[in-house]
Amino acid sequence: MSIQAITPHDLLQIVLKRKWWILASVVVCVALAGAAWTFSTKLFKATVVVTIDSPRIAKEYVKGLSPSQEGRYNDDPAAIIMQQVSLGLTNKSILMPVLDTLKPYSDAGAQGQSPDQLMKRLRKAIVVGKPKERDGGVGVGVAISFTHTDPHMAQAVAAALAVQLQEDNLTRREGVVETTTEFLSVELERVKGDLESKERAISDFKRAYMGELPQQMDANLRTLERLQTDLTNTTESLNRSGDRLNALEKSIREFSDNAQTGAAMTERDRRTGNNRPIDPQIVKLRELKQKLQELLGTYKDSYPDVIQTKQEIRQMEATLQAEGNQSGANEPVAGKADEGVGVVRKSTDPYLRELMIERSDTKREIAALKERQTHDIRQIQEIEARIERIPVREQKLAVLLRDHENMQRAYQSLLDKRTNARILSNYENQQFGEQYRIIEAATLPGWPEPPNQMHFLLGGLLVGCLLGFGSAIGVEFMKTGFRRPEEVEKYLGLPVIASIPAFSSVTSGVGIGTSLALLNGPGIPVRLPVGAPSYRGGQKMGANGKVGSNGYIGAAQSLPPKFHLITKWVPASLMAEQYRVAATRLVIMTSEKRNAVTLVTSSVMGEGKTTTAVNLAYILAHDLNKSTLLIDCDFKRPMVHDYMGVPSGPGIGDVLHGGEILENCLHQYDGGVPLWILPVGSPKVRPAGLSGIQYVKNILPDLRARYDHVILDAPPVLPLADVNALSGLADMTVFIVRAGRTGQDIAKKALDTLGESTEVAGIVLTQVEMEYAPYLMYAAAYTNEDVRNHA
To answer: Residue 619 has what DSSP assignment?
Structure first.
């Protein structure tokens, strides 16, 4: 049976079929559960309910030390309390005093355990949860439970845990505050030193780059603008002074020329004896200097003509000076040559002296202006360089200032935290903070904790039901045979002409094992034929109906004869009715033929092949009034004579050995029924398979003409090859399949062995359970009564 094919009705039928097995499983499991509860260790649980009182000072004035404390007012208070209690009960500072004081695990099993193992064991026995109504579960609270085999110890440990939780909470909070304050003070000093270091670095940077700082940009720009203005003014003053100097030079030259001409004439008139002319070189020098003054009024000193004229003047002056040294005695004593124009003027000329003094002042002024101009240019270049370096200094200074600001914020934050920590220290020392309070003290437990006896029994009942139902259904699933006629038709592709119920429906007085043996025949066990005669040479088993060493039930030869031929002795039974259906269908299938030969075979032995053959033969002869011949062709294991109650000989073997003629071997069945049986013969003269089949093949044409219907009880298909030869002698073949036993693959293989040339009329499904043949149940009301009457 496959899981896809099962239906709820099938499950119900399986349960009804295996009800005693299921009931036994339930009873055994419930009994074992009761015994397990009796010998199990009873545990008692004591519970104490605690809560956390809110601070007595508003939270706006005192801040906690951790984010969890600061945010707990926005979270679920019950969840916060349960989390705190759960974490607290895992601390060694709470569990070790309880273990040292009460010693809850002083049994022999805990002697060799370390303190860590004992704490682990204690943690497993502690349960933290929400309090029940009976535990004072009103408001926000946490139930701390401890389980132990001793109820007094459970109560003591639960109470001690609550007390230790209170003390540890106070100690822990005070220690946290003190440690935090000390830590913040150390960190504050460190950050303060770092902050001072940053300030020194900024100060050194500003001193090192004074004038190049970002905040000095405006001052540098103003200074640059002032210097550029001064440079412009200096340049203008220098130009004016140059013009004035040129004018003075021109005036001195003109005055010198006029004065020299008048003086020469006067001197010549006054000195009659001295007529020396003026030196031409002096005249040329005067002309060069005049030309130079004109060029300077137009061009700069770097102009080529100006440079060349200056060189000529220097050469001319050097020449005149050399000549003057040689003829110094001839020079006039009363005067000297004018430096600017080469004119010899008397030193006593006041106007010329004034012009020369003014010229000298102008030259000094020009030199001062040039020096000032150079100084302004140098300062402008320096200021411009500073301005160009300001962005670089600004970036470095920004990094220093950013680090300083971050350090300053960190310092201020630490300072605020240390101040708050000192406030919180006083807050905790005066016990204004959160405090654990016991709402309900631990009480002595009066009843053990679940699972109690009822739980054990219910568990045993559940396990028994699961085991019983599971094993019953599993046994059915493990069977690979067919269950319903529909399965046979779908898998094998052949019609089912009859579904024979199990014989137990009419043999309740002899037991299910004996009733199953009716289909197998004498000497065949109910299950696989291990101890019965085998086609493979197996050992025979005694036919006394006893259980053999292999656990199989032997066939019962001592059964009443009526149970071998059920269509005769229980004609109103469901089995007999199904055999009538099969016989009727065979007659209909062979209606076109005057005489018919039908072969009855199966896959393996023990499927009810011979039982089906004898009952079909009896129905054809008795009910349908057909002259019928039943030939036992199973030469290895002949059973027809036992089922029909006729002697085994003479038979086919006697004819082959020449001891009898065929007519003497045809045994007519008692009761005036047109039914004849041709047995195999006595055991001493039984023929071999091939020789017997060949003889049947020879006599079958004559016998077919003498009888309306010939039934051949052939051997099984798979163990032997005899059936292949017999199938060619028959008009049709009836294939026997035993429900719940014949494997689907075995049946398919047997049909394939017969070949396509063999015409299979249909399948007779034997040992069909009543729940899989509901259409047969309509006759149950009167069939059982008829069975009792015939019995």
So the answer is: I
